[in-house]
């Protein structure tokens, strides 16, 4: 069982020992630290925090603990109940709130939950703020309010609808063309809040939604990470229903993947590529993704005359570089679409609306659309190292070995070869080096990974 503390929040498994798992005491401890940070940051009389959760079995318990902890600190809470990560992100500025907390462990299995923390803009915390909350959690400086100064909880369950309103009001979402196309789409909501939000969005767009696992019970019918090996039911349903395509989201609805009409994966990496193609064809501009995302995004961006930049891995890093470079769309290769016209956060609802607009515009099958993009293939591996090995030193040696190539070192070591690339990153929590490669065939990507792994092992002196 596990408890992971990071700048973006606290994540762990339910039950077990205090300090080793996400127990009620740990939830209260970190909610208190966040509340204290809010007060230090905002320094005013009244404070408000928006709180929402995915459909996890433990969600109601954790939400009650978190909200009442904030109430005990004199902070008012807007309770969204069952919601999505992007919905909470949208709600924070709409409520003029001081922050937000999403109770979700994203794509982790049902025994996990987490407190994801937002600032007053509805964006994830930066490194400095996250570390301050971790420091406060271990301090004895947290103060609670007296009986006459307690906060209040206000329930507002309208925000998914309000979020959809905001999406439909985006100039590039072509509601008329989508409705005219009469699409039929299968939705896998993995029995979480995507099963509420995505069908509602499709209904508003005049799309016939066939629901698969859309009952928000928190009992995930398959591994909730939207990868090919977990989506056989969706693929079969798309073919059986003669649907135009399938949609799958993770439990908190910030990751999005598609299945083509033939039951084949569109490719999680290509969700962002397709949405970017549509946006840039209408509003030219720059793009950003993280260093471990497909090169196809760079290709599509340059085709439209834009400039592509790669950030360190992590949503907060992508957002920071997007702001610096005035990127009009960006995200991560795990199916995360960030469209600043609405907000700076990964948002599957925005992704669905943009993708449908693209399809309605091009009037082609999803498999045909996929074939219009450059084809790249990824291999994702890791090497377990023995504790005590100098991981940074190993990466430095790899950097020296390939100093004649195009190298980026803002997040580990990325080596860009003319026809492929490799990204080496160390884990922050265990002695592991992650090796991501991408090439124009799966064999080439796998072979490159094997070659690099062999070189790392030789440098490390391991078999």
UniProtKB/TrEMBL annotation:
GO terms for biological process: carbohydrate metabolic process; peptidoglycan biosynthetic process; UDP-N-acetylglucosamine biosynthetic process. The keyword Cell membrane does not apply. Residues 395-452 form the Alpha-D-phosphohexomutase C-terminal domain. GO terms for cellular component: cytosol. Its EC number is 5.4.2.10. NCBIfam families: Arch_GlmM (TIGR03990). Belongs to the phosphohexose mutase family. PANTHER family: PHOSPHOGLUCOMUTASE (ALPHA-D-GLUCOSE-1,6-BISPHOSPHATE-DEPENDENT), PHOSPHOHEXOSE MUTASE. This is Phosphoglucosamine mutase. It comes from Pontimicrobium aquaticum.
